[in-house]
Amino acid sequence: MEPTELWKDWKLHIAMFVCAVVAQKIGIINIPIGPVSLMLMPLIYAMVFGLALYLIKPIKFISTKQSEESSPLLMLAVMFLCVKMGVTMIPGLASIMSASAILVIQNIGNLGTIFLALPVAILLGCKREAVGLSFALSREPGIAIITDKYGAKSKEFQGVMACYIVGTIFGPVFFGMIPGLFVDFGWFSPEATAMAVGCGSTAMMTSGLTVLIAKFPELESQLTGFAMISNVISGLLAFYLSLFLALPITEKCYALLTRRKAVKAEKGEK
């Protein structure tokens, strides 16, 4: 099926429309957990409904081919979302500009994926895939770097793509739950949390931002601005940070950890 013919696929469009309407009708669900509350947003329901229509065999409304060829429509929808957010953030530009240095410095935290995820990946039995899995947040710049350096048939590429796919599917669900809890516990301010959710993909950012706006509607323009500027800056800096700093560090850490693991295994055999 050609991409232009996708517009004529009425079954797919009706299924997605029904998922969106039902998700909106359910609305926001607040689940109290002690002193905090877990907020479930319509975006999460819509993703779950769509996944069910794709996976459940007896009533499988969406085929693999349809899923793959729907990507251009997703990008079109994201364009409208970005325009809406851009208009919303204008009133909060002054406060955003005052925090510009912090927005840049926070990207150093991306290196945390190396020290947190790499040891776990190796313990779970990953080999060279661990490098692709853990050297960055596995957004598009990371995929480009791994493809150029190791090739599209490498173990490193399998690792980065696995992380990208899992993040695309489950990332918005995670972002739709955790940021609100951080704010409720008082660990971070709403503005700092908005900056943090901006480091993820557009879908992840939208999910986390929706929760924050629901909790602090009076700060909508500021929170939207912090999240969007953070997303843009993270996208620009992630490439150079990953290429010149994160990937070399990951390679050295991988060599060190696997060497120690080999030594321990050798001692155990003896």
From TrEMBL:
Residues annotated as transmembrane: 12-33, 39-56, 76-102, 108-126, 159-182, 194-214, 226-249
Keyword Transmembrane: yes
Signal peptide (residue range): none
Superkingdom of origin organism: Bacteria
Keywords: Membrane, Transmembrane, Transmembrane helix
Stored Pfam families: DUF3100
InterPro entries reported for this sequence: DUF3100 (IPR021450)
Listed name of the protein: DUF3100 domain-containing protein
Annotated source species: Mediterraneibacter hominis
Species classification: Bacteria, Bacillati, Bacillota, Clostridia, Lachnospirales
